[in-house]
Amino acid sequence: MAAILQITDVNKSFGGLRALWDVNLTVEEGTVHAIIGPNGAGKSTLLNCLVGRLKPDTGSVTFEGRPIIGLPPHRINQLGIARVFQTPEIFEDLTLLDNVLIPAMAKEDGAFRLNAWQRVTRRRALIEEAEHILEDVGLADQRHRIAAALSRGDKRRLELAMCLIQKPKLLLLDEPTAGMSRADTNNTIELLKKIGEKGITKIIIEHDMHVVFSLAHRISVLARGTFIADGTPDEIKGDPKVQEAYLGGAHL
Predict the structure, then answer these.
(1) Cα 189–82–75 angle (5° rounding)?
(2) CB 206 within 8 A of CB 41
(3) Tell me, what DSSP letter sits at residue 41?
(4) CA atoms within a 13 Å half-sphere pointing along the CA-CB vector of 72
């Protein structure tokens, strides 16, 4: 299987604090790759380096063979990388449908221009596509509702819809089930499995091991800014280094 993302010797420090240290990671196309580790391990810092919010001090990151370090976030997004944040980033004063249309139109307007007639025709097509995606995530019946009124689980589903309409090749999910009830968590797992049928590669940062072992093909363990283990879910479950670093010696 070909690598879609390659991280090589990435380092990042904040003053005297070394957040990432010689980080190396290969993510294969079409897989779900989980990154786990204790709080403060550097997981969110790594994601921020991947989407252009932070620039590593040293090292390289390539996406589909193309270097992306130094590119602005909107350019990385246009190349095919989308991110779901720990706290859902949505337009709370707008309807669900408008929330999904905004990233779709922003991406298109950054790529080419349309004449007036083409713009009207294309907007109709985008509305149909947005409604279809809202149906995929179980929110079609609420498409005209104001987003602020949604539950946390539904806000997460809306944010996923906002990512999906951009047709990403790589989806980064930063604790996608944080703060959810078990029922919402299980619904999100099923939704992510459904998204997997579209062939989208996913990197998931998650503390809930039920989520990780339900979805991941491969797991990498980050501790104190560097990866200490990488393998299949079964290999990670039995790794004593992981049990010590992540759960203080308890079994996963």
Answers:
(1) 175
(2) no
(3) S
(4) 2
What letter represents residue 30's amino acid?
G
pTM assigned to the model: 0.87
User: Contacts from 69-77 at CB under 8 Å and sequence distance 24+?
Assistant: 74/110, 76/50, 76/51, 76/52, 77/51, 77/107, 77/166
Can you give the pLDDT at residue 249? 46
Residues 6+ apart with CB under 8 A from 130: 97, 100, 101, 104, 143, 161, 165
The dihedral over CA atoms of 42, 45, 51, 57, expressed in degrees to the nearest 10, equals: -100
pLDDT tens digits along 184-231 = 889 889 888 888 777 899 999 998 899 999 999 999 999 999 999 999
Secondary structure letter of residue 251 according to DSSP: -
Q: Name the token pair of 221.
A: 């363990």
Q: Whose structure tokens read 């498409």? A: 143
Q: For 7-20, what is the mean pLDDT?
A: 95
